[in-house]
Amino acid sequence: FLLALPAVVHAQVNLAAGKPVTANSFFAGYPAANAVDPDTSGTAWNAGNFGPSWIEVDLGAEYLIGSFVGKAAAAPTGEISHSITGRRNIGTTLSLGSWSGTVGMDQLVPIPCSTALPVRYIRITSASSASWIAWWDVRLYEGSAPVRATTDTWGRIKSLFTGR
């Protein structure tokens, strides 16, 4: 008799929400903490430059990161590339994922992440672009993002975590 066990389901919790965050730069009034606050369209982190720039979230503990979803605050629309790295408590840095393409205001940028080791610090590095580097929101999940990450579903993603 063989008992089928259910697949492991990761809680679809935004690990970045409200966590300590740093960045290599910010424009006055647009600090890094804005990218992890509950307001996904009224506050943003803005690097105050065209890049390269980075923002880093301290998750407080080590997790196996499965996906990143960012909501860009970029205008004008332009080509950009993003890379995601993770750092362990012991200092080892791992590449988690990357993405290149055209990004504009309010566009969601989903990046699948993969690593065999858990990480605590997640850094999103953005290369030069047509606009200043800026994120309304950055989200990190142990598994895949909770719903298909498109602009249409961002409200649904937000409601899963804020109840609104």
Give descriptors for this structure.
globular, disordered N terminus, 164 residues, 39% strand, disordered C terminus, mainly beta
Description:
The relative contact order is 0.26. It contains 1 helix and 9 strands; from the N terminus they run βββββββββα. The chain has one helix spanning 154-162; strands spanning 21-23, 45-46, 53-63, 67-72, 78-87, 93-103, 108-112, 119-126, 134-141. By secondary structure, it is mainly beta. A 5-stranded antiparallel beta sheet has the order 1-3-8-5-6, with no helix packed on it. Strands 2-9-4-7 form a 4-stranded antiparallel beta sheet, with no helix packed on it. It is 5% helix and 39% strand.
Low-confidence stretches: 1-9, 148-154, 156-164
Radius of gyration: 16 Å
Q: Fraction of residues in helices? A: under 10%
How would a crystallographer describe the biggest sheet? 5 strands, antiparallel
Helix/strand structural class: mainly beta
